[in-house]
Design a protein that fits this description.
The chain has 454 residues and is of the alpha/beta class. It has 15 helices and 17 strands. Helix content is 38%, strand content 17%. Strands 1-2-3-4-5 form a 5-stranded parallel sheet. Strand 3, helix 6 and strand 4 form a beta-alpha-beta unit. The two termini are 37 Å apart.
């Protein structure tokens, strides 16, 4: 009866289910005694042997692999990892270095890179599954959480939907340790865990990566309440001032762990971010703006394959680029079955496997699809409402989708049963008229960083 729960720290710089990364900053604290930097930690002979076995299982014949990668390997025993471009002018022992760049200039390079990252992530997922199963045997009915962190960059080896699913399989949960004091960023980087855990039936909790400001206390409490988190962690310094403690006390009653209701999903562009990492900041900016429009769940390749879209009315695609063909095909079936599809600023939706273009095919039915332009990151905030969010809100509400706010105003809403959880992050008091879950309208004024349940 002494343990509330068990948190597993299996790898990473602070125990997260990731590979060693620069963020642990050990080299700059104790130079020369701890070798850690961003990178793909798989150049040892054991990893290479496992990689070769995995590719043999996937392709069966070396001829099939060479055709897909446009390579000329004589056999699986001669298979090598994809070339990695790194900054060789810097020492990789005692200084921060980046992880390097994987090749993605041609269709064959993109396919080889994705195959490699899939294997690299799956290795970490299998390691996490081993630990979760062992902990479940050791601790019986005591809740067990897998600690994970970062933002699911490929070099981290984390695939948050896979980690959520494997934890759910043994009755465990996930703690994500990447929050800070900015609500929009917090939502964007925790929502993959929150969405996947909610879908697979695993509890999840949040932890900050470092310091938390007074305003950040309210941001974190709202993020937990408005996603259905089972708990949240504070370091003592996060709340050890009267104003921070008051901010926590004001909103802590909202932390019930009750699930939120989401009828809109956003297509998580995992493959697009993997192949174009330089576009990650612009992608995140579009995710932040869409959260201001409405609450949503991430729908990624794995959860889409497992049926997450069956519980959604609409899917929003705010980022073009490369996606897996099976995912695009499932989205097509979602629309054919009556689902709504919205694209914002899409130049293309390209299948990774054959470079086939899917955008025109997916948006062919004007009754159930809407394609808006330009891209969110190309518009200043004052133009987003008129050019994008107003027509989007009209399209959704006309088809029975609940949209409480639908504006770029940094007033955030989330539905929890008959309640609407509202948070003002505008930097000043805001007066706004909102639509409640029962259809009634209400006008309210919220102070900056105020959280309220309606």
């Amino acid at each position: 009866g002494l343990l509330e729960s068990v948190l597993l720290g299996i790898s990473g710089d602070f125990g997260e289910a990731i590979y060693s990364v620069w963020h642990g900053n050990w080299p700059t604290q104790t130079a020369g005694t701890y070798h850690a930097h961003a990178g793909y930690w798989c150049a040892d002979p054991f990893a290479l042997a496992d990689y070769r076995r995995a590719m043999r299982r996937k392709y069966k014949t070396i001829q099939a692999l060479n055709a897909r990668w446009q390579t000329d390997f004589a056999g699986f025993d001669s298979l090598d990892l994809p070339p990695l471009a790194v900054d060789r002018d810097r020492c990789r022992l005692d200084f921060y270095t980046n992880e390097g760049t994987l090749p993605a200039a041609t269709p064959a390079q993109r396919r080889r890179t994705v195959d490699f990252v899939d294997w690299y992530r799956d290795s970490m997922s299998r390691y996490a599954a081993f630990w979760m199963a062992a902990a479940r045997r050791a601790f019986g009915d005591i809740p067990v959480y897998l600690c994970t962190g970062g933002e699911a960059q490929p070099c981290h080896g984390s695939e948050f939907a896979a980690q959520s699913k494997l934890c759910a399989a043994v009755g465990g949960g996930v703690r994500i340790t990447n929050e800070d004091s900015n609500y929009e960023k917090n939502f964007v980087i925790t929502n993959w865990v929150a969405s996947a855990c909610a879908f697979y039936g695993a509890p999840f909790t949040f932890e900050p990566a470092g310091g938390v400001t007074e305003r950040g206390v309210a941001c974190r409490v709202y993020n937990a309440a408005a996603t259905g988190a089972a708990g949240m962690h504070f370091y003592a310094s996060n709340v050890a001032t009267p104003r921070r403690a008051a901010a926590l006390g004001h909103a802590v009653g909202l932390l019930t762990g009750a699930p939120v209701e989401r009828s809109v999903a956003l297509l998580y562009p995992d493959t697009a971010m993997l192949l174009q990492p330089e576009k990650r900041p612009a992608m995140y900016a579009s995710f932040e703006a869409m959260r201001d429009f409405a609450d949503y769940a991430y729908a990624d390749d794995r959860t889409i394959a497992d049926g997450i879209l069956q519980g959604m009315q609409a899917l929003i695609v705010p980022v073009g680029g490369y996606y897996r063909r099976a995912t695009l095909a499932r989205i097509a079936r979602f629309v054919q079955a009556g689902g709504l599809l919205i694209g914002i600023g899409l130049d293309r939706l390209t299948a990774l496997e054959d470079d086939g273009e899917w955008a025109d095919r997916l948006f062919a039915d004007p009754r159930r699809t809407l394609r808006l332009s330009p891209a969110l990151e190309d518009l200043p905030d004052e133009q987003v409402n008129e050019q994008l969010f107003a027509p989007l809100a009209a399209f959704l509400t006309a088809r029975g989708v609940y949209v409480p706010d639908g504006r770029r105003d940094r007033l955030y809403t989330a539905r929890r049963g008959d309640d609407l959880l509202v948070f003002n992050y505008a930097g000043a008091p805001v007066t706004r008229t909102l639509t409640l879950p029962n259809g009634a309208k209400t006008t309210l004024t919220l102070a900056d960083a105020e959280v309220r349940r309606l």
